[in-house]
Amino acid sequence: MRSVLTILLAFAAGVLLTLWMPGRGGHITAPAAPVQGALAASASSAGGTPNATPASASNDDDDWPAQGPSPEQVLYAQPRLLQQALAAMTPRVAGKPNLYLLTFAGDGAEDVFRNEAEYAAKLFTRRFGPSAHTLVLENNPATLATHPLASWSNLEGALAGLARVMHPEQDILLLYLTSHGSEDHTLLVDMDPLPLDQIGARDLAGILAEHPLKWKVVVVNACYSGGFVPPLQGPGTLVLTAARADRSSFGCGSDSDITYFGKAWLVDALNRTDDFVDAFHLASHDIGQWETQDKLTPSQPQIDIGSGIDEQLALWRKQVTPGRAVPFVPAMPASTGLSAASR
Q1: Shortest CA distance to 324 belongs to which of 193, 95, 129?
Q2: CA-based Rg of the chain, rounded to a whole angstrom?
Q3: What domains sit in the chain, N to C, each tagged with a CATH number?
Q4: CB neighbour class for 309 (10 Å; exposed up to 12, middle 13-18, buried from 19)
Q5: Mean pLDDT for each consecutive 10-residue tract of the chain (343 residues)?
Q6: Residues contacting 263, CB < 8 A, separation 6+
Q7: What pLDDT, on the 0 to 100 scale, is given for residue 65?
């Protein structure tokens, strides 16, 4: 499956380069535009016409939007969308540690994951100032034309792009992954009918190891996410997970706006403190209370602090003056009102 996706993306990149290089001066760095517009411009330069057939005419998947780009158009647009997202990031602040937030919302069937990914980006840019930069990867029917997919290939591409602009000795990567998780410690990566590979704990560790990022904070918000700690832990790395390796976490589902961990760590704790470890302890306490109230088996969020990362985060915080709390507003309304996780 991975080889099929790689071939498709490689073909798309080759076509894009063929169409854009003559007279275009290299890579496209304009702000992101809808896929339909991008495809129309490319087709026009080649003397063709983009396929405007609604996606519903070519597939029967319930999660795919009735109008908008087709699955083939979405795959074709990925190199361009990712490049545009990287180019749209705010510039690095020289002479001090910067923090780069990369969010990954894996499951396109539930809005809750998109809500968290987009809220995290809003929170960090508004509350933590110009030294915080954000890039969102997400699977959701509403954003297929505007955001790069949360996929294995785009995760690798985003990390490679960030590594080119980050200062290797100073800057910190914050990778926030939110999706469903399985008992074998694999994140669900899904935007049917696209052939997206799943990402396991060792897969994620391998992807991160390919890029020269000395300082990392990795947050895995999923059931059984404690299983990600052993392969990810190490010097310069802070790992936070929403649950123990053998426990479920709570708050996802089509009737939820945000997960327990997303609300507790992002919305509640990080609007009170800029210390990620302190925020984790505040969040763990709140989650425990909610689970007791709802008579749920405790998820027991996990934390591992590698050598040096606490000190590097302190250097970043030293030059940050936190702004006002950022209210949580769902990117898309949940289908049936508030759940227990929405509180």
Answers
A1: 129
A2: 20
A3: 1-84 (no CATH), 89-342 (3.40.50.1460)
A4: buried
A5: 46 39 27 26 29 35 79 97 98 97 97 97 97 98 96 98 96 98 98 96 98 95 98 98 98 91 98 98 98 97 98 97 96 43 35
A6: 251, 328, 341, 342, 343
A7: 86
Reference 153, options 2, 35, 1, 29; nearest CA is 2
CA gap 190, 186 in Å, rounded:
12
Q: Token pair of 264, please?
A: 């507790």
What's the burial of 1, exposed, middle or buried (CB within 10 Å: 0-12/13-18/19+)? exposed
Q: Which residue has the tokens 């809750």?
A: 112
Structure tokens at 311: 């000190």
pLDDT of residue 148: 98
- Would you state the pLDDT for residue 206? 97
Distance CA 246, CA 300 (A): 10
Q: Which residue is listed with tokens 């704990």? A: 201
Strand partners, 138: 105
Distances in Å between the Cα of 128 and the Cα atoms of 90, 98, 124, 235, 267 are: 13, 10, 5, 25, 14
pLDDT on residue 331: 80
Q: Which residue has the tokens 């052939």?
A: 195
* 263: DSSP letter: I
